[in-house]
Amino acid sequence: MTPSVECSWRLARFAWGRGYMTEAARSALDDGFRRIELRRVHAWTSATNIRSRQVMQRIGMQRAEWLDFDHPALAADHPLRRHVVYFAER
Q: Residues 71, 85, 80, 8: is their CA dihedral positive or negative?
């Protein structure tokens, strides 16, 4: 997935479900492609983080299943161990 720039986010729970993250992520992605002339951006999250995955999909990122991975810092039976990868290209 290289060369690629990672896009990530964290949002306080009280702000969830209001569209803030989608708007901010879309703006960052557009700016990265237009102004900085990035070619590829990727993001990853726990497979169970449906809200984050939905943001990635709404801003036009595509799932890269072949890059999904188990987070090495989490135990094999940890519910957040499996991670999924998304990307967008200009």
A: positive
Task: End-to-end CA distance of the chain: give it in Å, rounded.
Answer: 14
Residue 2 has pLDDT above 90, yes or no: no
Print burial letters for 40-71: b (CB count within 10 Å at least 16), e (below 16). Answer: ebbbbbbeeeeebbebbeebebeeeeeeeeee
Closest CA to 43 of 34, 35, 32, 76: 32
Identify residue 75 by its one-letter amino acid code.
A
> Residue 60 is which amino acid?
G
21 CB-contact burial (10 Å; exposed 0-12 / middle 13-18 / buried 19+): buried
17-42 pLDDT per residue, tens: 999 999 999 999 999 999 999 999 99
pTM: 0.91
Ordered domains of the chain (ranges, CATH) = 15-89 (3.40.630.30)
